[in-house]
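Hi all, long-time lurker, first post. I run a small reading group and we've been trying to get comfortable going from sequence to structure in the token notation. Rather than ask abstract questions, I figured I'd post a concrete chain and ask someone more experienced to write out its structure so we can walk through it together at our next meeting. Sequence below, copied exactly:
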Amino acid sequence: VVYVIRDPSLDPEPGSSPTPAPSGTPQTPLSPWTTLASGDQVRTLVSDGTFVWAGTAAGGIVRWSPTSGSFSQYLAPQDGLRSNEVHGIAVGVAGTVWAATARGVSRFTGLAWSAQQSDVSGAPDGPVRAITADSSGQVWVGTEAGGLHMMQSGRWETIPPESLGLQGNWI
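-- Answer (accepted) --
Happy to help. Here is the structure in token form:
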């Protein structure tokens, strides 16, 4: 479940109409916490400066706008995620959001999620356990038994574990 804490200083001015809560959202007048979406366990939280992204154990990804209070939930397969089991989220230098899922890597470019396909871009298949984007624009992923991978110039490359002093392919 994704919860947010309400900042009373952001409450609407008297006389204005507040943003309605999503249907089914439990509201407690005395509580500053609000449920945004039921997405099982939250595994990762990342802010890109505009949105807060929450990756869940079985409910895909929830994107929340602290400014407006609105949110969107993205699910596999209908929204382009490889899996609803999200292990990590990273934001690249150009604002692209990347997701490490139980079935591979997905990318959000601002409009929609797209699955990174191994047969097209060489993206790692199977469980991706960790993801990060560095300041030079490269995206790095650690996989379950598939080693370390890096995206460079639109193609994924496998980094041999021995070259990094790693004992095996579980990253």
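A couple of things your group might point at:
The two ends are 27 Å apart (CA to CA).
The chain has a mean pLDDT of 79.
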